[in-house]
Design a protein that fits this description.
Blueprint: E1 14-15, E2 18-19, H1 21-32, H2 44-53, H3 57-66, H4 70-81, H5 86-98, H6 103-116, H7 126-133
Antiparallel strand pairs: 1-2
C-alpha cells in the first residue's frame, strides 16, 4: 500500500465487520513500507476503533508488518471482534458513521470542510468529509437548520 500514490480505503468499508478498520489497516501497511505520505497511523479515529476492540495500536502495527496476507491480519482481529455481540458491532458502526465531531475536532472539521468544499454544509461527519476530500462521491443531503 503506497499512500503517496493512492488513498486508503474509505472509513465506510469494513474489515472483520468493523468500519474504519480497513482504512486503519491500509495506513498501517503503508507505514510499515515507509510510504504513508500525509496520512497518520494511530490517529484519534484509529484509536477509537482500537479502543472499541481492545487492540493496542503499536501491537497492531507489528502484526500488520509481519503478516504475509490479509487473512493473517484478520485472524489476529477476529478474537477481539468475537468478544463483541452483533448488536454491539452494529451500534458501534452506526455511531461511528453518524456522530458529528465536537470540541477541537469540530473546529478542525469545519476548517477542512471550508477549505475543500465550502458549499457542502450537509457533510457533517468525519467519514463523509474524508471521502469527499479523497474524491469519493458523497450524496447531497438536506441541511438541517436548528
Amino acid at each position: 500500500m503506497d499512500l503517496t500514490k493512492t488513498t486508503p480505503r474509505s472509513v465506510h468499508e469494513t474489515f472483520v465487520g468493523i468500519v474504519q478498520l480497513a482504512r486503519t489497516t491500509d495506513k498501517a501497511k503503508a507505514l510499515t513500507h515507509g510510504n504513508i505520505g500525509e496520512y497518520k497511523y494511530d490517529c484519534p479515529m484509529d484509536k477509537g476503533v482500537f479502543d472499541f476492540l481492545g487492540i493496542n495500536g503499536p501491537e497492531y502495527l507489528k502484526i500488520v508488518k509481519n503478516a504475509k496476507s490479509d487473512a493473517e491480519i484478520e485472524a489476529f482481529v477476529k478474537p477481539f471482534a468475537s468478544k463483541k455481540s452483533a448488536q454491539e458491532i452494529a451500534l458501534f458502526n452506526k455511531q461511528w458513521m453518524t456522530t458529528p465531531p465536537n470540541g477541537d475536532s469540530l473546529a478542525h472539521f469545519n476548517q477542512l470542510r471550508t477549505r475543500i468544499a465550502p458549499d457542502r454544509t450537509d457533510v457533517t461527519t468525519w467519514p463523509d468529509l474524508l471521502d469527499l476530500e479523497e474524491g469519493r462521491a458523497i450524496p447531497r443531503r438536506e441541511t438541517v437548520r436548528v
